[in-house]
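ok trying again, last paste got cut off:
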Amino acid sequence: MDQHCEMILDEYRKKYHLYEKLDRIVLAELNRVVESFKTIVESVGSRIKTEESLIGKLELKGYKYQTLEDITDIYGARIVTFYMDEVDKYAAKIESTFEIDWENSIDKRKMHQIDQFGYMSLHYICKVPTELYYDPENPEINDIKFEIQIRSILQHTWAAIQHDIGYKSDVEMPKEYLRSMNRLAGLLELADVSFYQLRNQIDDYRRRIRRVIKDGNLNDIELNGDSFNAYIRNGGFNSLNEKIATIANMEIEEVSLGNFLQVFKALGFKSLKQLDDFVKEYFDLAYEFSVRQFDGMDLDIISSVAGPLALCVVYILSNDMGEIVVRRLLDSVYGNRKTNARTAARLAKIGKSMGLVKSEDDDVNEWLYWYNLGR
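nice, full thing came through this time. structure:
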């Protein structure tokens, strides 16, 4: 390495602390950008080029750089999104946040010909504008150029594999491998598009489900995770919970009801219409059960589990499934607590006092119920 490159390397060592500070500034801002969209990304990361890596670059291309500032990838940050359409969304925010060197920034997604496949990513060369951050003791931070990459997780996968294989864009790959690489690149690009389209289709389905439920038309809607969550968000159990809360002027603590999906499926409900009919049919019985359950208790708060749990208990007991199944229900909702057996006995006793239990023999029904649940 010649004397000129040694000078650049010495400058790198002296300014390394500035790159560390730059890293904190840029990462904090990128995380704020991600949070502003209220979406999840695969990762937000960064790196400062190691001295060893810089030496390798200078030995190979040192003649191209007059000063350390000419090397724009000493510091680099990256946002990896889950879907390809999110790249442009984050790009627009990056453009309005940082000072962009448009002449040296590259959108590699637009560099391929119509019959070509390969590395696709958006690379910005940036500086931190003084409006975003300024330190009078280190004003040179605003003069440091750095790189921000934005790409989807599958574009990132391709870049990582290509890097691992060891071929760069300026090194010709042997022809016997080129066809395989191009085929794999095309498959990844197709998968990227397919995941994006699938997400849009699922989002459309969820919006349609919410709209149909809001309109009260529950026929032919399969009971699944999406439809059940939409039913909950639309207040499917709210009326019962609110009425139960009036027993002792209790407040309702909203908690996840996700565990009830498998319970309702095990009870034989296959559609939202069946579930909604069940809620309406057992509403009064569940409320009466809850009055007896909370009688004499000094409670200020109940969880939103109260309504659906009461519905399930009265259904189980009135259909001769018995105390054992009530306990299994509690295991499904709360986990295998030691107190579940005692609670199940108390709930079964309430059911007997209401005349819900017609038979003491629940072995067959218990087996069938938990067979349906997949236990």
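cool. The beta strands are 43-48, 75-81, 99-100, 106-107, 122-127, 146-152, 251-253, 301-303. The chain has two domains: 3-193, 218-372.
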